[in-house]
């Protein structure tokens, strides 16, 4: 009997084919999982490893300045407190500054005077002691003037403790002042030198508004300490000079002490010399006068005074034939006075013009 082979199922071959297909699918799935796992690992690795980027170098901290060396190795450096938040620390003053007894009592000074080469030392001089301005202990000092005769040295054992300015005066000589401090416990016996030098000269010039020199103008030098006063007049060249002027602070005024024609000049003078800037004043001139008696005879030696609104008082005595010249006078209203003990007096008013050429003399006729 012959069988139909086409109708018989192929069990063995078909089962082997099915197994092979399932195995391939498993292998593909495993490979996919491996790829996913590898990708995850790579992503994690890049996330964990830092990426290097170019960064600008950081600014270096400023180099601290070197602390200056102390001049005195034994000195102690203390912080000033500047730049520190909060209250600034109190200054560390030495304890002895708070001692109220350091200027109580008396001390001893010894001064030795010397003169410039070629100058005969003075036989009479004065030591001047004054409280030193702006010095600790000045309020305890007592101003004194100690006269010295017949020697160049001085010893004083009864000088009140305090801070002083010491200087010497001797005729036309003086010396540069020195500061000294008498205090407890160690500075109660001080020896110091004083060197004399010649007083100097202060000069200047006065011109009018045209730049021309003013002759005969009064000029005053007033001590700003109120101790002295000098007066002089300008010469033909408008120059004035204060000779042998003591060193110090002076105020220079032109024409009058009280109402100067121009602003005063304050100056600190020190020998040997000093020349000030020019003073420029308004135009000035001279008032010509003649003083006569009732009979018209000129009177010699009569006092004539002029008082102007800007020039201040001027005075002069008459010369031959009773003539006199008052000046320098400023333009404006002027009152003239003439007084004589025997002939009487006279007064007049006029408007003075310093620019007038060859003015006619003003005649003052005295009456008893």
Using brief descriptors, characterize the structure shown.
368 residues, mainly beta, Immunoglobulin-like, 4-stranded mixed beta sheet, 23 strands, 41% strand, elongated
Please characterize this protein's 3D structure.
The protein has 368 residues and is mostly beta strands. The chain folds into three domains: 97 residues, Immunoglobulin-like; 81 residues, Immunoglobulins (Immunoglobulin-like, Sandwich), CATH 2.60.40.10; 82 residues, Sandwich (Immunoglobulin-like), CATH 2.60.40.180.
CATH architecture of the largest domain: Sandwich
**In percent terms, what proportion of residues is strand?**
35-45%
In total, the number of strands is 23
SS-derived structural category: mainly beta
CATH superfamily of the largest domain: Immunoglobulins
| Percent in helix | 10-25%
Distance between the termini: 204 Å
Specify the number of helices: 1
The overall average pLDDT, rounded, is 81
Shape verdict:
elongated
H-E order: HEEEEEEEEEEEEEEEEEEEEEEE
Give the gist of this structure.
The chain has about 375 residues and is mainly beta. Helices cover about 10% and strands about 40% of the residues. Strands 1, 2, 3, 4, 5, 6, 7 and 8 form an 8-stranded mixed beta sheet that branches. Strands 9, 12, 15 and 16 form a 4-stranded mixed beta sheet that branches. The chain has a 4-stranded antiparallel beta sheet with strand order 11-10-13-14, with no helix packed on it.
What's the helix and strand layout?
Layout: H1 11-48, E1 106-114, E2 124-131, E3 144-149, E4 153-160, E5 162-170, E6 173-175, E7 178-182, E8 189-198, E9 200-207, E10 218-223, E11 229-233, E12 239-245, E13 248-254, E14 265-269, E15 273-275, E16 279-280, E17 284-292, E18 303-308, E19 312-317, E20 323-330, E21 332-340, E22 344-352, E23 362-365
């Amino acid at each position: 009997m012959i069988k139909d082979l086409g109708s018989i199922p192929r069990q063995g071959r078909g089962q082997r084919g099915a197994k092979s297909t399932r195995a391939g699918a498993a292998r593909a799935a495993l490979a996919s999982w491996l790829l996913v796992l590898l990708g995850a690992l790579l992503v994690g690795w890049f996330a964990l490893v830092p990426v290097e980027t170019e960064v600008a170098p950081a600014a270096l901290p400023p180099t601290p300045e070197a602390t200056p060396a102390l001049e005195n190795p034994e000195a102690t450096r203390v912080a000033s407190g500047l730049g520190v938040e909060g209250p600034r620390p109190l200054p560390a003053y030495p304890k002895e500054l708070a001692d109220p007894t350091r200027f109580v009592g008396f001390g001893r000074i010894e001064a030795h005077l010397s003169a410039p080469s070629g100058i005969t030392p003075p036989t009479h001089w004065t030591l001047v002691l004054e409280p030193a301005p702006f010095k600790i202990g000045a309020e305890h000092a007592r101003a004194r003037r100690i006269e010295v005769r017949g020697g160049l040295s001085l010893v004083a054992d009864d000088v009140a403790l305090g801070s002083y300015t010491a200087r010497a005066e001797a005729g036309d000589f003086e010396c540069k002042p020195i500061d000294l401090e008498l205090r407890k416990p160690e500075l109660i016996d001080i020896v110091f030198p004083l060197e004399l030098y010649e007083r100097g000269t202060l000069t200047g010039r006065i011109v009018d508004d045209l730049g021309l020199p003013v002759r005969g103008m009064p000029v005053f030098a007033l001590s700003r300490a109120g101790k002295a006063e000098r007066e002089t007049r300008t010469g033909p060249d408008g120059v004035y000079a204060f000779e042998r002027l003591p060193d110090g602070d002076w105020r220079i005024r032109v024409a009058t002490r009280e109402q100067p024609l121009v602003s005063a000049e304050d100056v600190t003078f020190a020998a040997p010399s000093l020349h000030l800037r020019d003073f420029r004043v308004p135009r000035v001139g001279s008032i010509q006068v003649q003083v006569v008696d009732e009979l018209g005879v000129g009177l010699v030696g009569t006092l004539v005074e002029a008082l102007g609104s800007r020039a201040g008082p001027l005075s002069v005595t008459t010369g031959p034939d009773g003539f006199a010249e008052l000046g320098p006078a400023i333009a404006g209203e002027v009152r003239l006075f003439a007084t004589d003990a025997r002939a009487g007096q006279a007064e007049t008013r006029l408007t003075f013009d310093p620019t007038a050429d060859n003015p006619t003399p003003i005649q003052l006729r005295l009456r008893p």
